[in-house]
Amino acid sequence: MENFELFGNTEKAQNFLDSIKSGKFLFSLVMSYTETCEIPGITFAGADKDSIKFTPPADAEYLYYGYCKTIDKIPMTPDGKPTPGLLTKTALESASTPHITINAGSKIPPKLPFIDTGMSFGKNISIQDAMTDS
To answer: What is the Cα–Cα distance from 100 to 30, expressed in whole angstroms?
Structure first.
């Protein structure tokens, strides 16, 4: 990899660049959820407050199947913009990059094979501690 200007710990940066020269990558989609996202105006990760919890599994399913199983269409923002998962899927496919899904506290599990950490979803930080089992 040529023409990179390295900053900070240049030895570590160079070691990283050397390690990715092989072109062997694995993308890990780590899903989670926090009830903090239910605070009005804090996120656009769903068409409405009730659909936000479906965004992580629907994105994972879209990457895996090319369509969603948990909901009937890809996740959208309230103003109709589609999930960034469209770009992620395109990038993964164009680079032939394999991927896995890790559930690290999603409120709804995806309908596909995944690694489960056993973590609970986060609570609303305006009401209580968000993470009690981490």
So the answer is: 9
3-class secondary structure per residue, the chain:
CCCCCCCCCHHHHHHHHHHCCCCCCCEEEEECCEHHHHCCCCCCCCCCHHHHHHHHHHHHHHHHHCCCCCCCCCCECCCCCECCHHHHHHHHHHCCCCEEEEECCCCCCCCCCCEECCCCCECCCCCCCCCCCC
> At residue 45, what are phi and psi to the nearest 5 degrees?
-85, 45
Give the bridge partners for 34, in sequence order.
122
Beta strand 27-31 with 115-116: parallel, antiparallel or unpaired? unpaired
User: Is the pLDDT confidence value at 134 over 60?
Assistant: no
pTM of the model: 0.79
Q: Cα(31)–Cα(22) distance, rounded to whole angstroms?
A: 27
